[in-house]
Amino acid sequence: MNPDLVRLGFTPSFAGHFTAHAAEHAAPRLPARVVTEHRGAYRVHDGTSERWAVITGRLRHEAESALDMPAVGDWVVLDETPDTEGRAVIQAILPRRTAFVRRAAGLDKKPQVVAANVDHVFLVSSLNRDFSPRRLERYLALARESGAEPVILLSKADLVDPGPALEAAAAIARGVPIHASSSLTGEGIEIVHGYLRDNTTGVLLGSSGVGKSTLINRLLGEDRLATSPVRDDDDKGRHTTVRRELVVLPTGGIVIDTPGMREIGLWDTGSGLDEAFDDVAALAAHCRFSDCRHEKEPGCAVQKAVAEGALSADRLASYKNLQKEGDRLEMASDPRARTEEIRKNRVQARALRAHLQKKRG
């Protein structure tokens, strides 16, 4: 394979998909990776150079949602013949290996692919005033569903003792690597480098001002991305990054910078929620009813664990909130799911009434 493409993360799997696509078309095609997106146009890198590209009308017409449009990190197929304005033309998107998808900010319940084809999802939370276990749980559910490996980075370790936050993060993210880092002192930087070897790709996700761009500059060894200093009044960084951007590191890895997220809406968490809350899922397997909602049902192993202090009530509440959010999304998009939910509620209500009548009798 072309070593310049390999440098961008082009694997034998992507090469196979591209070869199969190219074999079906007579016009010359070449692969490229999406570096950034801006107002419907895409900056792509073909291993030799970057250029602007647009998608074909057919691809736009056939797209059922944003999931079918190119995203930063995607591998796409370009027509070698540019359009009348000299832009490359994207004919197809190669199948994604992984994708971090959230519900787009705003009232519309639409998906947004934040980053595609990443190996590691770095969940960045600063140690001063940004750290929130509940927010981390939300990120972890989406990261697990993405197919990539989550890594928690607690930034700005030069400002605060990381010990308490490390313990709190470990309590909700069993089996997930957790590291303290500081772009000022260099703490943890080599650890991050270690995840980004051999042309692997990572994406940095977190709130505005947690130091994502500053961390990338430290990994680059130069101030390439714009950053802003921490505010004096609340110790928070200023929002700087305005769009997602793929950056190739001189050490061999690839990292995607992202704007700070004000909203982390779930989108099709599926098994990701149970993976992020594997302790709750393990307890739920011992509930009397397979569809137990862990509220007032008899024989609920989860509520028993909360009563005995083996499970935090806050963690259970977070799990149930995310579960209900996922259910609402499913019902909003699938009438059959709404009907099934109504049926399940009726069955559960009848079972509970029967149990209570039996106890009274």
From TrEMBL:
It is found in: Cytoplasm. GTP binds at residues 155-158, 206-214. The keyword Nucleotide-binding applies. Gene3D superfamilies: P-loop containing nucleotide triphosphate hydrolases (3.40.50.300), Probable gtpase engc, domain 3 (1.10.40.50). One of its GO terms (cellular component) is cytoplasm. Its EC number is 3.6.1.-. Binds 1 zinc ion per subunit. Its cofactor is Zn(2+). SUPFAM superfamilies: P-loop containing nucleoside triphosphate hydrolases. One of its GO terms (molecular function) is GTP binding. Its main location: cytoplasm. InterPro entries: G_CP_dom (IPR030378), P-loop_NTPase (IPR027417), Ribosome_biogen_GTPase_RsgA (IPR004881), RsgA_GTPase_dom (IPR010914). PROSITE patterns: ENGC_GTPASE (PS50936), G_CP (PS51721). One of its GO terms (biological process) is ribosomal small subunit biogenesis. The keyword Methyltransferase does not apply. Keywords: Cytoplasm, GTP-binding, Hydrolase, Metal-binding, Nucleotide-binding, Ribosome biogenesis, RNA-binding, rRNA-binding, Zinc. Belongs to the TRAFAC class YlqF/YawG GTPase family. RsgA subfamily. This is Small ribosomal subunit biogenesis GTPase RsgA. It comes from Polyangium fumosum.
